């Protein structure tokens, strides 16, 4: 699994020459409702095993949570299940709010 910073992810999303990754937000509903990166798809961490078939194992997937720990666990789980392009957002949505989008709600 690769690690990516908030600034690196922002650059990736802004680069029209690169295919955009799937942004997989594994936080709970209340967290996702509080703040999110535009274009993110929410599948709470505890529902990932039941919804694994909803994901494209060939796609680049960036896992997102609050600070990066839950998303790292999900990315590792998906890698163990055949997903080859997993990326974890280090620092999570909190790092995004601090480094990329200062208007984003923090919790």
What features would you describe in this structure?
- 36% of the residues lie in helices and 16% in strands.
- The protein has one domain: Rhodanese-like domain (Oxidized Rhodanese, domain 1).
- A five-stranded parallel β-sheet has the order 1-5-4-2-3.
- It is globular.
- The protein is α/β, with parallel strands linked by helices.
- Strand 4, helix 4 and strand 5 form a beta-alpha-beta unit.
- This is Sulfurtransferase.
- InterPro entries: GlpE_sulfurtransferase (IPR050229), Rhodanese-like_dom (IPR001763), Rhodanese-like_dom_sf (IPR036873).
Write the layout of secondary structure elements.
Blueprint: E1 2-4, H1 6-14, E2 22-25, H2 29-34, E3 41-42, H3 48-51, E4 61-64, H4 69-80, E5 86-89, H5 92-99
Parallel strand pairs: 1-5, 2-3, 2-4, 4-5
Could you name the key traits of this structure?
single chain, 107 residues, alpha/beta, Oxidized Rhodanese, domain 1, 5-stranded parallel sheet, 5 strands, globular
Oligomeric composition of the shown chains: single chain
Q: In what order do the strands lie side by side in the largest sheet?
A: 1-5-4-2-3
How many discrete domains? 1
**H/I helix tally:** 5
Largest sheet: 5 strands, parallel
Q: How would the global form be characterised?
A: globular
CATH class: Alpha Beta
- What is the percentage of strand-forming residues? 15-25%
Mean pLDDT over all positions: 97
In CATH, the topology is named Oxidized Rhodanese, domain 1
* Rg, nearest Å: 13 Å
- Report helical residue fraction: 25-40%
What is the total tally of β strands?
A: 5
What's the name of the CATH homologous superfamily?
Rhodanese-like domain
CATH architecture: 3-Layer(aba) Sandwich
Element-by-element helix/strand order: EHEHEHEHEH
**Which structural class matches the secondary elements?**
alpha/beta
Our measurement of the CA-to-CA distance between the termini, rounded to an integer number of angstroms, reads: 27 Å
Report low-confidence residues grouped into runs of 5 or more. none
């Amino acid at each position: 699994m690769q690690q990516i910073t908030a600034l690196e992810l922002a650059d990736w999303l802004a680069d029209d020459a690169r295919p955009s990754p799937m942004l997989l937000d594994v936080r709970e509903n209340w967290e996702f409702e509080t703040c999110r990166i535009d274009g993110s798809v929410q599948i709470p961490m505890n529902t990932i095993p039941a919804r694994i078939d909803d994901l494209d194992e060939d796609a680049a997937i960036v896992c997102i949570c609050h600070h990066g720990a839950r998303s790292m666990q999900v990315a590792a789980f998906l890698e163990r299940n055949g997903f080859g392009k997993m990326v974890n957002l280090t620092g999570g949505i909190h790092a995004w709010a601090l480094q990329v989008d200062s208007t984003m709600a923090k919790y």
